[in-house]
Amino acid sequence: MPKLLSNAQTEQYRREGCVFPLRVMSAAAALECRRQLEEFERASGGPLRGELRHKSHLLFAWIAGLVRHERILDAVEDLLGADLLCWTTNFFIKEARNPAFVSWHQDSTYWGLDRPDVVTAWVALTPASESNGAMGYIPGSHLMDQIPHRDTFAKDNLLTRGQEVMVEVDEAKQVRICLQPGEMSLHHVRLVHGSPPNPSDDRRIGLAIRYIPTSVRQLAGEDSATLVRGGDDYGHFELEPRPARDLDPQFVALHKRITERNAGILYRGTGVKSFDERAA
Ligand SMILES: O=C(O)CCC(=O)C(=O)O
User: Which end of the chain, N or C, is less surrounded by CB atoms within 10 Å?
Assistant: First the structure.
């Protein structure tokens, strides 16, 4: 018995590699998430940067709650089963009138995971529309194998290496993922997707939460994840604790250790040592 997705929605995910829009929380609750993010940004002197954009569920109690949100987990359970890890979180923030973009790519390229059973819940904290750089995807592209990518390290590219698929993408075939605050999309780790800059007058903010079944392995080194539902009979990942409050010094230190090690996986073979170095 499915927990949240209708048969048609599950079928759409299997066929297209993406399903949306799915409501997670009210627009007011999403606005409250945005307020908490921006309160921290104001106090710390500017937009969330570098390693703070990654594995942020170890730093902020409200994000630790979001990765465990029942509606997100119910939908992901319908696709991946009942024993779930949150492997990572990544903020995708596009500032107003800003050239930041995301090249066409498959998430699976550098993640080091042993099989493509990974679902991203992309949760909108602001509207995401064609006028502010919403994601687009190529339906059915998740059914292809891993496609070779080239690393560009382009300055305005929000991806770790500015990686892009080495095949021509027919943009006329893309579907744009337009979302209201508090809605999410679910996409497959092999889906070819990307997004253009945000020319609008407001920020576009999304939190990408990456979920895997506990049976998935990391092949590229030691790694950690958060058990968010069910049990872990495998022990493939160091299990991460849950912060009870924002920016607890112990968790700040843990986050630093974990993001450095995780960057070692994502940047392997490039000479880049950390998310902060790439963002500099
Ligand atoms: O937020 C975007 O525009 C792109 C996000 C993305 O590439 C991802 O979540 O995998």
Answer: N
